[in-house]
C-alpha cells in the first residue's frame, strides 16, 4: 500500500505564514474553515472551546500592538480560540469548574480545534500562523474581547493569502520523539546532527535568515522571562484553582 495521499502531503508540507497579501478571504471559505474546526474531537463532548473572530480593524490593530506582532493587523483574518467553560456554567450552575483537569481539557480541546482550522485553511490555498503571543497580554486581550469568568484566550490564528512562505522546518527525527513501551533518553549524537541540520536551514532559508541551532533557540525560550502572571489570571477567571 502506498502511504501517501494529498492529505498526508499537505500535512507534511506545513510552514507558518506571517506575510499576507491584501486579498480578503471570502466568507464562504471562512464558514468552511469554521465547520472543519468545530467538527474536531472534544473530550466527553463538552465542546469547551469558543472562537472570537476579530473583524473590527481597530481591535485587530490593538491586539497586534499588544502582542508586538504586526502581521496580525495585516492578516485578512484573525481568530482567537478560547477555552470556554462559561457556557457550561450557564447551563449547569451547580458545576464546579475550578479543577486543573478541566483547564487541561479546555487546552487540549482548543489545540485540536485550532489544528483542524489550520489544516482546513491550508487545503483551500491559504496560509496562517498560530499566535501564542496573545497570552503575553492575556488580561488586556480578555478585557478587550469581553471574556467572562471560566474562559481563557489560549491561541490566536492569523491567516490569509500568503505573500511569502518559508521552507518547511526539519523536525526532530522519530528516533528522538517516538518511543516504544517506555521512555528513552535522547541521543546526544542525534541531537547534535539535528542541530547541524537546523543551523543550515536557518542560514539558507529564503526569508528571515538566522544563525544558531535548535538547542540554542530552545535554551533561549526556556530561560527567558516567563508569564509569571498566568496563575493569578487563571484564578481570576475561576480556572486552575485546585
Characterize the structure shown.
The chain is α+β, with helices and mostly antiparallel strands. The protein is built from 11 helices and 6 strands. The chain starts with 5 loop residues before the first helix and ends in a 6-residue tail after the last helix. The strands form 2 sheets. The protein has a 4-stranded antiparallel β-sheet with strand order 2-3-5-4, sandwiched between helices. The chain has a two-stranded antiparallel sheet with strand order 1-6.
Estimate the mean pLDDT confidence: 95
Shape: globular
Gyration radius, rounded: 19 Å
Strand-residue proportion: 5-15%
The N- and C-terminal alpha carbons lie at a distance of 49 Å
In DSSP terms (H or I, runs of 4 or more residues), the helix count works out at: 11
Structural class by secondary-structure content: alpha+beta
Record keyword descriptors for this entry:
single chain; alpha+beta; 6 strands; 4-stranded antiparallel β-sheet; 242 residues
In short:
The protein has 242 residues and is an alpha+beta fold. It contains eleven helices and six strands.
Question: What is the secondary structure topology, with strand pairs?
Answer:
Blueprint: H1 6-11, E1 19-20, H2 27-38, E2 49-53, H3 57-67, H4 71-74, E3 77-84, H5 86-91, H6 100-123, E4 127-131, H7 138-144, E5 151-160, E6 162-164, H8 174-177, H9 188-204, H10 214-223, H11 230-236
Antiparallel strand pairs: 1-6, 2-3, 3-5, 4-5
Helix pairs in contact: 2-6
Amino acid at each position: 500500500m502506498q502511504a501517501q495521499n494529498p492529505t498526508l502531503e499537505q500535512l507534511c508540507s506545513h510552514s507558518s505564514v506571517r506575510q499576507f497579501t491584501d486579498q480578503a478571504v471570502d466568507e464562504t471559505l471562512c464558514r468552511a474553515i469554521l465547520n472543519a474546526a468545530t467538527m474536531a474531537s472534544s473530550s466527553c463532548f463538552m465542546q469547551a472551546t469558543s472562537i472570537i473572530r476579530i473583524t473590527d480593524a481597530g481591535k485587530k490593530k490593538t491586539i497586534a500592538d499588544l502582542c508586538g506582532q504586526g502581521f496580525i493587523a495585516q492578516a485578512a483574518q484573525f481568530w482567537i480560540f478560547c477555552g470556554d467553560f462559561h457556557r457550561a456554567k450557564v447551563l449547569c450552575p451547580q458545576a464546579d469548574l475550578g479543577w486543573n483537569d478541566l483547564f487541561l481539557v479546555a487546552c487540549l480541546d482548543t489545540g485540536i480545534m485550532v489544528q483542524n482550522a489550520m489544516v482546513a485553511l491550508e487545503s483551500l490555498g491559504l496560509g496562517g500562523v498560530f499566535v501564542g503571543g496573545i497570552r503575553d497580554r492575556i488580561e488586556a486581550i480578555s478585557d478587550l474581547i469581553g471574556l467572562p469568568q471560566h474562559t481563557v484566550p489560549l491561541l490566536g490564528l492569523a491567516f490569509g493569502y500568503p505573500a511569502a512562505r518559508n521552507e518547511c522546518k526539519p523536525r526532530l527525527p522519530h528516533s528522538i520523539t517516538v518511543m516504544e513501551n517506555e521512555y528513552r533518553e535522547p541521543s546526544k549524537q542525534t541531537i547534535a546532527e539535528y542541530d547541524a541540520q537546523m543551523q543550515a536551514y536557518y542560514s539558507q532559508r529564503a526569508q528571515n535568515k538566522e544563525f544558531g541551532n535548535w538547542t540554542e533557540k530552545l535554551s533561549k525560550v526556556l530561560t527567558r522571562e516567563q508569564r509569571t502572571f498566568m496563575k493569578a489570571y487563571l484564578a481570576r477567571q475561576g480556572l486552575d484553582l485546585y
